[in-house]
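Trying the structure run again after the queue cleared.
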Amino acid sequence: MLAPRQVAERWTVHGQVQAVGFRPFIFRLARRLGLRGSVANTGAGVDIHLQGAPEDLERFHACFLRELPPAARIDTLERQPAPWQALDEDFSIQTTGGGTIEAHVPADLPVCENCLRELFDPADRRYRYPLINCMHCGPRYTLIRKLPYDRPHTTMSGFELCDACRQEYEDPDNRRFHAEPIACAECGPGLRFVDAGGNTLTSTDAALTAAVELLRGGGIVAVKGVGGYHLMADANRPDTVAHLRERKRRPDKPFAVMALNTLSAQRWVRLDASTETALSSTLRPIVLAPALALPEGVAPGMDHLGLVLPQTPLQYLIYHHWLGQPRGLDWLTRSDAPLFILTSANLSGEPLIHDDQQALDKLGHLADGWLLHDRPIYQRCDDPVVQTEPEQAPILLRPGRGTAPTVLTGYHELTPMLALGAHLKTTVALSRPRDILLSQYVGDLDHPDTCRALDQLADHLTTTYSHQPQVIVCDRHPDLYSTRLAEALAERFDADTVRVPHHTAHLGAVMAEHGRTSPTLGLILDGFGYGEDGGYWGGELLYWTGHGVRRLGHLDLLPLPGGDAAAREPWRLAIAALCGHPEQHWPEHLAEHAMADLMRQWASHVRTPRTSSAGRWFDAVTSLLGLCQTQSFEGQAPQWLEACARRYTGTLPDCPAADITPERLPVQDLIPVLLSVQKHLGTEAAAAAFHHWLAQRLAAWAEAGAAATGVSTLAISGGCWMNRLLTRAFRSALPAHLNVLEPRRIPANDSGLSVGQIWAAHFGGY
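Done. Tokens:
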């Protein structure tokens, strides 16, 4: 019989509640408050059965909300009366339940402070064990094969716990209570070093010694991380940096660097509170920070440095070994620790390598040695990249380790969909009734291996979540690999296919992040996208009506002499821009170009394709000012132009007057004026003038669109908005009555397209 004033409830919790220490937290809280019952992971999240006095359940609820584990996130909590049960135990963690998979795959977490203390404590049994972890840290997403999250469903399933680890795993008061990836040197994966001759060292100390000696000598070491391999080298050795560039065939693209802590980072970059917070956060991202000093060859032409702090025990062990294995923990705050290059280990155009044998086979001409361990990586995951602004949340540029999967919540009854992005910076997104999930960055679909990586990721996500999409969404471009994959998946799942225009998807991504479906203007600036008319779009004023999306207008059209070659060779675009001003005296570096006359004729030809792309206008101006004539990586010219513009601290001339209507934003008329500014005030002034003048005209264009439609909410998206100088100048110029939606959690570049495709397919009239 039910005891007086005793009740039973079932709680169903959705959100980030698996692999974050949630079940042990519930267990300890229930025991503390004298409640009986159980907790279990399920396909939907976590189920809790509670029995006790009503006032104790309310105390449990209050403590539950107040004391959640740091990495946990509650999206919904449902409390329902439940039948009373005769229980053998006071409170227990039950075997995982089944049901529909609605839970979230948890993100990977950096090593925590407690594990760091144990890692460098000679008295601890995990002293210098390179794969130490607990319920508060370690790999999650990258080692999970399927949900629910339990050890047999991870790549740790082949490592049976030793008696000591099992005791910790089963001890409710232990930090490793039900921490699925735990292990130690006795029962877990081990570390080894392989040199260029194939010789192997299997002792942790010997492996670290060999790797650090190689780094000290200017060598390049392939180091296994959480989501794949990094190439690691001493950033302060110009000869090593040059060798790495030569081996990777990467002449100009910046390398990310790793500092031990924020004190040592301050030697290289300017840190404000937002940047320090981002660097030390559980994302542990690469943060683009203003450079104070740039090691030679690391980031040519840039004024920012991509910097990251260590995420893994192994990375800390490398620092510890380099510094002479000091006692205690004081060395963790040393400001004189070395700066390492930490760049993705992959061949040009190919996806990140995460398989051990592939690393040994494919990186032989890149690395001089390999430092690897036996814990398999199931999902490759690049490091995430963010920008920061004072007193603002970080701006995600590349989703990856620690962000994947990014979850947007707060929706109801969404149709199950799967979206595949476009061609560059590809990601996968899926919608479930309550949320939208964004995957990690896959890459550009120029290489067959990257295409296979997209296939595998789409298959993994649909399998892991038992996801049966009713709609497959892709770009409207008919010739993309992602479009062909969408057609194949639609046949496999017996699903419909929806093709969303490229720039509509950019707009949809921002609206999804902000949960907006009502009429909205979109100012979309990027490098290239397939337009609804089959043309080359990229500087668009769009109108999301709620029933469809209309193109109100675009930037001045710019000829593309040579087609796709113009995107790689900005000098072609500069000549095309000058052709609009026959009276203009040409800069010497363009007038004397061997192909100048041919390009002039080509640009004037009626059949030469033309683009409204803001990115191509940035390319043209960069070449015009003599800063970059050939791009070795995407976005090089605009990034160099932005860096040049930021160096100017003087006063700029007023923006030239222009007739701005919703249908057209003039840019062509700025070309001769910019050359005049360069002549009288210098290249930096001209670069700054282009940014500020374009921003002012964009603000006026948005105001014209608002006046024409009666809509005062504007969303900005597209890769050009990653230019913070342009974005800040635009904000300053925008009238106060216009409300701006900006991307932060979902990238403005093409990595956000998959989310936008889903939003447009749901709410955009497609």
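The chain has 23 helices and 30 strands. Worth checking whether this holds up in the mutant runs.
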